Description:
Helix content: under 10%
Number of strands: 48
Number of helices: 1
Structural class: mainly beta
Oligomer: single chain
CATH architecture of the largest domain: Sandwich
Largest sheet: 5 strands, mixed
Amino acid sequence: xxxxxxxxxxxxxxxxxxxxxxxxxxxxxxxxxxxxxxxxxxxxxxxxxxxxxxxxxxxxxxxxxxxxxxxxxxxxxxxxxxxxxxxxxxxxxxxxxxxxxxxxxxxxxxxxxxxxxxxxxxxxxxxxxxxxxxxxxxxxxxxxxxxxxxxxxxxxxxxxxxxxxxxxxxxxxxxxxxxxxxxxxxxxxxxxxxxxxxxxxxxxxxxxxxxxxxxxxxxxxxxxxxxxxxxxxxxxxxxxxxxxxxxxxxxxxxxxxxxxxxxxxxxxxxxxxxxxxxxxxxxxxxxxxxxxxxxxxxxxxxxxxxxxxxxxxxxxxxxxxxxxxxxxxxxxxxxxxxxxxxxxxxxxxxxxxxxxxxxxxxxxxxxxxxxxxxxxxxxxxxxxxxxxxxxxxxxxxxxxxxxxxxxxxxxxxxxxxxxxxxxxxxxxxxxxxxxxxxxxxxxxxxxxxxxxxxxxxxxxxxxxxxxxxxxxxxxxxxxxxxxxxxxxxxxxxxxxxxxxxxxxxxxxxxxxxxxxxxx
Length: 519
């Protein structure tokens, strides 16, 4: 019996080894379109006689066989691959694992060639690029502006507008969207016995001086360069290889240049020179108050192009600011010459100055007729004084003196030349405690109950107090009682007995009661 159990345990152990624990494989780093090596790392006590692979996750292990296989995965991302082993005893086991295939752009080699180029001749440009993927777009940049929109196609013919070095760009786009580009220099030759008139100019802006520079060439010596600046066909407005000129109008101006050599050969050219509009700077501002934010608003206009650069100088010691609508703090009262300088995307510039008067902040103070904590029925007078043009309270009143009887936060704002300053006061109105007074005093000089006291008298002041004897004769009177009656009349102690009081508070409330005097 014991031997049978041991045999069963051994067989169970062997079965677990075969069907799960020892079937595995590994792979090297996998890139799209590269060959990947898959290696079985399986182990089994019995001899493994076959290794079958499922490389397209169709549950059929029929794509490859062997403990080591090489494979090119057709897509990138997470790929499921499977391996099944079979032992000499006929037992089978399999495993599926995720193989990560990394994306790698297909290699593109961009290049082109051209035939020998002579000035004013047609040049053939030929695409010689190489790509593993289908090429869908062949685009050319023939004026070196970074935009491939001048021509398309594998072969094109082009006449370069100038001799010497010309920069040409070619961009390739594949069917998967991958792209690459190249720029090369194409040299345009010149015939030695020719005369070619040409010129260039710097940025041309209305009312600015423009520099015109001859770029004419000839195999002979050029002895004369004559300019036609008003397009009348006469080259009599200026001479020389470099001239300065202020164009009288904007937009297109026709300029001519004629070159004459020492052998009498000549050539002329007319070109359009675009004269750009200047930007018109203008601005407004709001809240020019010392030590507070002043807001500046650009109001500039331009007829052509866009304003590309703003430069503000606020006329104080602060640094220049390059924003369209800046915020600035002037630290003191003065008149500041604020400058706005503009530059358009055509390179044209203009500026303007405006005087900004910075005003002082109003001076505002508040005085009170009493404590800001008061009792129902009382009122508090608040008065504003200082340096300002006008004021307004948060309750809508515009007087410098107001009376309040309710709790709340009272804010007053003072205005002066567009600047303002606010101050707030918190007023608390409370209910009074019930008025109570002593009904017994013992004015014997021992310091205890020597004087008649009205409790919480500050909540009712001023209190008018009159005290009567039992015959109704007044023995004490005060219009502003201070808890100081000690039963003395004309410097003589009043006799013991019962006296009667009348209290009239500041809010005209009346209270009466009795006082027993015991000595």
